[in-house]
Amino acid sequence: MLSDQLHGHLQRLATLLAPHAEGLDRRFGAALRRRRFDVKQRSALAAITLGAAARLLAAGEPLLKFLEQVEYSGRRLAKLNLPPSAILGALAEYDRLLAPVLRRLDPAGSGNSRWVREQLHFCVILTLNNAYYQVREAETQAFYELFRVEVESRTLDQMLQRFLVALSEFCRSDAATLYLADKREGRWVQRAAVGWGAEGDGGPVAARGLVRELAKARFIRCEERTQRLVLHPGWQRFSSCWSVPLVTGGRLAGAMQFAFSKDYEWLPREQDLLAVAAERCLMAAEKAGLMEDLAAREEQIRQLAEHMLHVEEVERRRIGRELHDEAGQSMLCIRLQLEMLEHAPPAEREEWSARLAEIRDLTERTILEIRRLIAALSPAVLEQLGLGAALRQLVTRFRRVHPCRARLHLARLAGLPQELEIMVYRLVQECCNNIAKHSQAANVNISVTTADGRLRLQVEDDGVGFRADDAPAKRDSFGLAGLRERVALLGGDFQIASRPAAVGGRGKSGTRIAIELPVSREGETAKAARLAS
What we know:
- It is a single chain.
- 59% of the residues lie in helices and 15% in strands.
- It is built from 16 helices and 11 strands.
- The strands form 2 sheets. The chain has a 6-stranded antiparallel beta sheet.
- A hairpin with a 2-residue loop joins strand 5 and strand 6 (251-260).
């Protein structure tokens, strides 16, 4: 708070200076022109001088009114890109012009007038510092908000809308729109809108003829002769508009426009920030477009992989049916014919009996092998009795071909979609095949449970183990990669932990595979049949 003494001296000084303020302003303006300050800079600098304070105080306004004027002018000077050193130099020039006037008007009170000028100068400098800080803080906040929008936005349209909201708040505009060129040549489409008219679509704009005029940033007064440069058709109600081009590769890709209810001409620093923001916005839009295109292509690859696995499963079933209906029946017919030959007359039977018995045994083994292949390709028990019975049968067959102690734990498998059952069966089948080929395990534990909308499969053995990080680099090693891919396509989680056997057989070794698959996730279970392999 200024003391009463200082306030009294200011009032006295204002009374002395008020008649001479206009002449001082003219000489100050001429000095600023010589220093190449432009019109806007000269106007803002004239509003923060002692002469400006004298006019307000002489008119009965409080000193706070002058400090508010200094703060407003300080923000304008900051947006005009005028450095603080230039402001201090201009104020020093005004003080040089003021000193002889004060000596002539009040020769006896020159000491007091110097003290008053120093105190007021100190208040002006503090207020200007605060104004510059406000401008820089607003710019920093705007750039931070743009960065946050770019990181957090999920779609291109959401990002463009939030970009425009952040920039409109920075400009303090009454409305804003963002137009981008679409694939149809010569047409722009409104992609985002803020403020008045945002609830309606501005409609496509035939940009032909406007490209040259909107290719650079410009201030537009909303009047009849320039109305065609305003892209939104409902903006006749506004007084002025800022237009910022969106340029990529030397080509105009669109424009952002900000509308104001009064004639509000922008300042250089505002224009610079909007130009940088427009470039960042367009780069982010291109990046988002590429990400959406990449996601679409990944989805196409995913659908192709699903289709390939579906075709593979269909082919398995076709081969299984043909083996059963053709090869299996043919082998059965051969066996019957051989049995008939065995019962031939004694004279003929003695000659062929031994060889026919050998052929019959071979045929019997072939029939069993074909049945095993049919069951592996398309297990009928899975379709008829469900996942639990199919897994028990699979583990029983596994024990026959691999001499180990295999345990199977099943819990809460009722009500699973048939498609998911097929997928789980294939995963367990692949795990058992890998164990039989590579592990040399003596004990195998298999667990399948469901809880909280997730199916959990765990297969653990005490075999020789391996280095899980080295497995993908091995040639002709597709088992683990196939498991990972199938689980990933279903939106599940795949984890593997393995410890290889130590030298000399010391320490525990083995492998554990843990898989989680969504049970109730929308759309996933419907795909599982096509993913089984």
